[in-house]
Specification:
By secondary structure, this protein is of the alpha/beta class. It is built from 12 helices and 9 strands. Helix content is 46%, strand content 13%. The longest helix has 29 residues.
Amino acid sequence: MTKSSMEPSIGTICFPSYNRGGILLKTIKKLLPNLNDDWPVLVVDNASNKDRAAYREIKKLAGKSSNLFYHRHKKNGLFEGNLLSLFELVQSQFFLVVSDEDFPSIQGLSELTPFLKDNRDIGGIRASLGTLLGVKASQACKFDDQLFEKVDGINSFGLSGNYISGQIYNAPVLNKLNIPQRLKKNIHANQFYPHLYLNILAAANTRTLFSSKVVCYEGTADAYRPEEVKDYFGPFSYGTRVDQFIALRNAIYEGYMDIKNSNTNSQFDMTGFYNSYLSLCSKYQFLIFMAQGKMYRDQMINLDFLSSSFSLLCIGSVEKLPYYEKVKDKLADAIYYSGNHWLDKRQNYDKQNVGLVSDALSNGSRLKSA
């Protein structure tokens, strides 16, 4: 991002892109007449080997516009590497991440800009994702405005959703805390949801925000329909879900250790950590039974046994962590309760053939403060 005449903007619209140049070129052409100095666009091409002509045209357009930038990596760094590179490439304070099939809302960003200018300490914002006319909603979500003080956003901001479009990061604040650098060291473990790692640590160390402002709209390419996933041997297999779960457990623990270490003589927040962990357990029980339950059953996996085994995994995965002995009975009860809740939801869905439950955390169990 090197145009000498450009003053740093408040934010940058970032498209980390790979092999979708044709779709992205259409988006860029629609965006160009409406771009402004507050929110220029940065396209980061992750060494694409398809749609190269479209990417070359985007590069030409960038050469003619003061509000469009193009960067091509020499080597493909996968999604997680491309995301991390934004913390180095972006010159503005904030940047919005938009999947290359989605469409940013200049109006929504303009409405959010005054707040960002007055709150430059906020580490991350999860803004709302809308749908365009004629597009069937798959990932769209609407948040109520909610500002979280440091630590308070781990359960909700840190663990909400899996989709990245609509996520805004404060590059200098998170860089100062070495959070992107820490993700880089743990990149293999967090290859599927690197943004959730960022969100958890941002919530542990800074103020964070849910915003009702719709800053981008969901596109139509590769819409994710959980019930239509057929390929077990991929990112949604049970084994891969367990890998993701353990990586996010580590992120939560790392966040609470940050909190402990940031205050002299501070004790480890037992209640806070285990409540966050229960939220994570509930999130993955939802994913296993509601999102991928049909696929697992099609692989002749008994969901009742799977519920019991995953609950045992959740309990055993914190046995060596601080204060486990103090909370183990209540923790086990809460995990089994949540697992049975989502298993019942799955069974009721199968019987009634109604829509999927969308909120993985709405019925999560919580420990009472000690």
